Structures are given as structure tokens and as C-alpha cells.
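Re: your question about RING-type E3 ubiquitin transferase

S., sorry for the slow reply, the queue was backed up all week. Below is exactly what I fed in.
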Amino acid sequence: MPPPPPHHAFPFVKHQKAITIRNDVNLKKETLRMEPDEHNPGSFLVAFTFDATVSGSITIFFFAREGFDCSPTSTNAAGLPRPFTVTFKEGLGQKFRQPSGSGINFSMFEEAKLLLKAGETEVYPLAVKAEASPSGEQHHQGRKAIVRNSLITQAAFEKKDNGGYQVRVIKQILWVNSARYELQEIYGIGNSVDGDFDGNDPGKECVICLSEPRDTTVLPCRHMCMCSECAKVLGFQTDRCPICRQPIERLLEIKINSSSQTPPDEQPQKQGSPPHLPC
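Result:
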């Protein structure tokens, strides 16, 4: 008799379930842009669309570092526009635009500083802090401390063909209950939140069994492509993502809530702990 085929031992893959967290304010990063200031030639204003389930404030920083509580801190360099803050009320699909006269003139800065790449420096050309109104109280050394949750968007600029500049988002950070979470894109999760699961929709089912809805994401490549049952079996057959064939480090099961306030293609991860999801 021929010898039995060799047994391939695949590395152990940890299967986790996501934990929900609350995200009170969401800046839609695809809408973040610079618009000309009609009353100040050569100056540009920050504009974007955002959702808020509570009232709060928005602060615009130019050339800022990430400081305490993840809050941007201005470098206070000569000629920089000072941080500008406006308040907002709760509501979905709100439009934000800096008031005239508070923007930035790109000609005042070296192009290399405007076009930085992620990881090149700790100073970001543009930072937007969207802070929710006080959401609770904590006791600290016998005193009550107000807890504020916020979303910080760090960005640089890209040169356009016409010589102007557009915004390039580098990262978005959630500061929730004194913990830092960095938003990461999850590929394929959008198909899982567009209404109820329909077995006739080829974009929603597990790529392995082709019948159950997708609810499990492969990390670190972030492809949401399997149902939880197939994901449990996957580790006995391969250690590669079914989509891109990259090695699997973890599997994250995400139960989608269609009322989520965070964009379906972005979910936060806290460094050193299981990823969490906003509700």
C-alpha cells in the first residue's frame, strides 16, 4: 500500500468576535476637501460632510502633532493659521466649511511639507478634531472629570494636475472612554450592511460555502469574505486568505448592525487588544 499523504500542520489561527463601541461623530473621509476662499484669493478652506448623534465641536489644525488624549497640538510656527473651532448640533449629513479668512495659503509653505507620506513625520499638514459633547462623568482623585469622545482625522495634501492641492487622509483615530482606536478599512463589509441578506445577491454570500452571509474578516489583509462556520473549518485546511492568499493571523467575526454610525467599510482597531466596532 502507498504511504498515507503527509499531514500539513497549519499555524493556529485565533478566531475572535468583535465588540461594539459607540461612535458619536463621524467625518466622512471621502468628502474631506479644500475649497477656494472667494473673499481671500490664494487661500483655501477645509470642507467635508459629517454625521453626529450628539452635539459637539469641530476644530481645524494646520501642521499639528498628535498630543495628549490623541488631540492634535499646533506647532505654533510663524505664519500658520491658528486652530479654529466651531460648534455643531446633532444630525446626519451635515455640511462643514471653514469661515472665510480662517483658511490656509499653500504658497507660504514648502511643497515637501504639504505632500508628506504616512510615517515620514509626526507633524500632519491637516488635522480635524470632531469632539462630542460630554457623554458621561468619571471620578478622578475624588473629583468628577468630564469624559469626551472624539474622532481625529490626520491628513496631508496631494498635488493636482492643475497645480492645486487635494486632501489625502492618512489615518482616522477614535478616542472613546480614554482609549485609542485606529479606523481600518474592511474590504467587503459594505455588501453585508445594505439591507437584509438576500441569497440571490452574489456579493453577500461566503466565498467558500456560497450560501451563508459573510460575517468574518481575515486579518491583517482585512477581507470580509466568509461566514463564521466556514472560518472555523478554514484553519484545518489552509493558513491563507481565500481572496488574496496572504497569511492569516486572526479571524474576526463581525455581526453587522445596519444602524451603525460608522461607515460600513471602516472599523476601529485598538492596538494590543481585540478589535472593537462602533454601534
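The domain at 14-18+187-278 is CATH 3.30.40.10 (Herpes Virus-1). Helices lie at 111-114, 228-234.

Happy to talk it through on Thursday.
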